[in-house]
């Protein structure tokens, strides 16, 4: 390629300083619009309840208050225990989910696997049909005997057919067969090739599935509602939902009891709801940079030499 052609190619992809400033400004505004709702939730959670009732929702409230967080923190050890249970369930569940999904997706992505079509259809069928809540409850509590155990919140979410299909497609499109075959020529077995060759090249896909699984486990409260009666095993989302239910119960019965009316007036209703959202969301927000690091790392690992 001549120097003139190289110069023309650079001119085509060159963006002037003015356009670069405009595009960065548009991207910054869009990023701010994405982040602002959560910032506004934090502001509301720090607003005095009486000020909120009088002035409504404002970016700069007339009076700040930590009463909502004090109300939520009154549970003390229960809140910390719920955080610990949720973190344990999320970490263990994500690891188990990644192991099971990555192995299943890799098997059905290989053309040499004789039963790949059968297991692909088997996974897709679970996306279309399920046994329902009652049979699932019977399997978990009676057949597997997982009621009031940490595994009742982990195993039901460990396999996801949709994630399997995503990772299967990623293996097919992003992991060349030539790399796997070259490893086998050098003496690598199927499992060794998967660990040493496929997984390093699949970090973007694994990070995506890991993020989905982490969000699913962190936000799950339904399994705890079904299977957990032990107060020491209640996860964060379920505990916050119980606090919200208690507030609603007091609201509904406030007219029937002077005591309930006094309790209702002492509860920061709207701000406490926002405080619950903040407490439940902040840890998962801090997890995003770690997944982002693996996204970038995975995109720069390996390739087929020509």
From TrEMBL:
SUPFAM superfamilies per UniProt: MetI-like
This protein's UniProt keywords: Cell membrane, Membrane, Transmembrane, Transmembrane helix, Transport
CDD domains hit by this protein: TM_PBP2
Domain of life according to the entry: Bacteria
InterPro entries on file: MetI-like, MetI-like_sf
Residue span(s) of domain ABC transmembrane type-1: 83-288
Annotated compartments: Cell membrane
Transmembrane segments annotated in the record for this chain: 21-46, 83-106, 118-138, 150-172, 193-218, 274-291
UniProt topology in membrane: Multi-pass membrane protein
PANTHER family: ABC TRANSPORTER PERMEASE PROTEIN MG189-RELATED-RELATED, POLYGALACTURONAN_RHAMNOGALACTURONAN TRANSPORT SYSTEM PERMEASE PROTEIN YTCP
Family as reported in the entry's similarity comment: Belongs to the binding-protein-dependent transport system permease family.
Protein name, as recorded: Carbohydrate ABC transporter permease
